[in-house]
């Protein structure tokens, strides 16, 4: 507490997506990190079961990423993003394009996942406009989807608590597919559930309702993470691709979480063998080290937008001061090298069955009503407590932190998504600690 202001050192910061008053009454602080572990101010190790916020895929403080950042910041701290270029952003875009599927090889850099989503939505509208289809402005998201917090992403997003008070401000013409999870049909599925491909036909309903000539794009997460680890049923994404292509609607995969090896391939698009029209990404792009996002765009979409503008003029009136920031680009370039040189995407694929067994070993643990998994993501769904949804999930998060493992709580779904460098012992430890916590709480 400061004698001058009467304020505690916690008062000035308004924390994002956090129960601020509760946190400040009993803070959970992290002061350093290395590899698979965080450290608290008391020097207590906390196993990182969530790769930070699904982003530190190569583990904490990776030497090559740190060195790339240090070199770059000492050489060129910043260069204007508009009408000027610097070598590292071109290098990062080229390396990124090389690990993306098909012709998704035109890269627009942003500063976060939210910015990537809003950028992709605007590119979709700009693409149709460039081809003379100016009525195609409608954007389709999905219930329980999460696409960040900007106005576009909030609007196509489908998590009620995030949208509720802003819904009258959303752009005109937003609609949502129904979500894909059914506890009765899906409980304890290993990997993609068998049931539910037909739920993609909901896009046909929306097309019939609004007419395809009004629809620009549909955006989905291949695995809806923040909405509670909802895994697309077998055949669902394929069907969505077919229907969207049939009506000339662009399909955007939001791979902010599934990108960079989380499902055992560079991107979910590659894992599922589906080519969307755009992929949004962030997080693992720089191993979480420096904020950065990106949109990968199929070549003909990029070419159509550029080709519609008169030669010598700006083709797309959009961008961020920090698009392609030199230090972020250096981190991205190094992170992509690390993923490749250390074979981390393949490692995640190899580890996935062990991780799945560990997750499903909680099937009979106290409070557990479902376990879902794909790649190195698991969602453990707890029965809500009678006094409210999310209370048991939050208590699990707090008690796990005290026990020495970081988990994520999305209402009553406990999420685990460790760095891709995790070993079997780390996996045993994280699920072991989670089990003990579940046994100990009400
Ligand atoms: C699928 C998805 N899209 C977008 C975002 C937003 O990314 P950011 O928090 O970097 O703005 C997230 C963040 O978790 C996400 O999971």
Give me the secondary-structure topology.
Elements: H1 20-25, E1 32-34, E2 37-39, E3 45-48, H2 51-54, H3 63-75, H4 87-99, E4 106-110, H5 113-130, E5 138-142, H6 151-156, H7 160-163, E6 174-177, H8 183-186, H9 202-210, E7 215-220, E8 223-224, E9 230-231, H10 236-246, E10 250-254, H11 268-272, E11 278-281, E12 293-297, H12 299-307, H13 326-341, H14 344-360, E13 368-374, E14 377-382, H15 391-403, E15 405-406, E16 408-410, E17 413-416, H16 424-440
Parallel strand pairs: 3-15, 5-6, 5-7, 7-10, 10-11
Antiparallel strand pairs: 1-2, 2-3, 4-12, 8-9, 11-12, 13-14, 14-17, 16-17
Helix pairs in contact: 3-13, 4-13, 5-12, 14-16, 15-16
The chain binds pyridoxal-5'-phosphate.
The site of pyridoxal-5'-phosphate has 14 residues, from helix 5.
Structure description:
With 442 residues, the chain is an alpha/beta fold. The chain folds into two domains: 20-58 and 343-440, Aspartate Aminotransferase, domain 1 (Alpha-Beta Complex), CATH 3.90.1150; 65-341, Aspartate Aminotransferase, domain 2. The chain has helices at 20-25, 51-54, 63-75, 87-99, 113-130, 151-156, 160-163, 183-186, 202-210, 236-246, 268-272, 299-307, 326-341, 344-360, 391-403, 424-440; strands spanning 32-34, 37-39, 45-48, 106-110, 138-142, 174-177, 215-220, 223-224, 230-231, 250-254, 278-281, 293-297, 368-374, 377-382, 405-406, 408-410, 413-416. A seven-stranded mixed β-sheet has the order 4-12-11-10-7-5-6, sandwiched between helices. A four-stranded mixed β-sheet has the order 1-2-3-15. Strand 8 (223-224) and strand 9 (230-231) form a beta hairpin. The longest helix has 18 residues, at 113-130. The model has no long low-confidence stretch (mean pLDDT 97). Pyridoxal-5'-phosphate binds next to helix 5.
């Amino acid at each position: 507490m400061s004698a001058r202001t009467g304020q505690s050192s916690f008062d000035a910061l308004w924390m994002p997506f956090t129960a601020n008053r509760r946190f400040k009454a009993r803070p959970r602080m992290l002061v350093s990190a290395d590899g698979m572990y965080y450290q608290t101010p008391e020097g207590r190790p906390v196993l990182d079961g969530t790769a930070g916020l699904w982003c530190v895929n190569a583990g904490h403080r990776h030497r090559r990423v740190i060195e790339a950042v240090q070199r770059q910041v000492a050489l060129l701290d910043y260069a204007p993003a508009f009408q000027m270029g610097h070598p590292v952003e071109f290098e990062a875009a080229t390396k990124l394009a090389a690990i993306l599927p098909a012709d998704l090889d035109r890269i627009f850099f942003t500063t976060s996942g939210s910015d990537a989503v809003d950028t992709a939505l605007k590119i979709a509208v700009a693409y149709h406009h460039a081809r003379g289809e100016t009525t195609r402005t409608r954007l389709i998201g999905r219930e329980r989807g999460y696409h960040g917090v900007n106005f576009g992403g909030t609007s196509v997003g489908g998590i009620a608590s995030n949208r509720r008070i802003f819904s009258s401000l959303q752009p005109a013409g937003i609609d949502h597919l129904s979500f894909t999870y059914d506890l009765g049909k899906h409980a304890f599925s290993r990997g993609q559930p068998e049931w539910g491909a037909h739920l993609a036909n909901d896009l046909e309903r929306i097309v019939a309702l609004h007419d395809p000539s009004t629809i620009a794009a549909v955006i989905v997460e291949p695995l809806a993470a923040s909405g509670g680890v909802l895994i697309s049923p077998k055949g669902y994404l394929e069907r969505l691709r077919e229907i969207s292509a049939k009506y000339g609607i662009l399909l955007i995969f939001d791979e902010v979480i599934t990108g960079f090896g989380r499902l055992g391939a560079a991107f979910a698009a590659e894992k599922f063998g589906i080519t969307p029209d755009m992929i949004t990404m962030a997080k693992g792009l720089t191993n979480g080290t420096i904020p950065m996002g990106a949109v990968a765009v199929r070549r003909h979409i990029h070419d159509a937008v550029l080709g519609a503008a008169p030669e010598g003029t700006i083709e797309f009136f959009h961008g961020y001061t920090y698009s392609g920031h030199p230090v972020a680009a250096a981190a991205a370039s190094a992170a992509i090298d690390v993923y490749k040189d250390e074979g981390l995407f393949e490692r995640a694929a190899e580890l996935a069955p062990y991780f799945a067994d560990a997750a499903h070993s909680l099937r009979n643990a106290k409070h557990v009503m479902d376990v879902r998994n794909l790649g190195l993501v698991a969602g453990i769904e707890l029965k809500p407590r009678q006094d409210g949804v999310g209370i048991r999930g939050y208590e699990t998060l707090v008690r796990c932190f005290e026990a020495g493992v970081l988990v994520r709580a999305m209402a009553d779904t406990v999420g685990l998504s460790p760095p891709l460098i995790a070993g079997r012992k780390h996996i045993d430890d994280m699920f072991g600690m989670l089990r003990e916590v579940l046994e100990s709480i009400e």
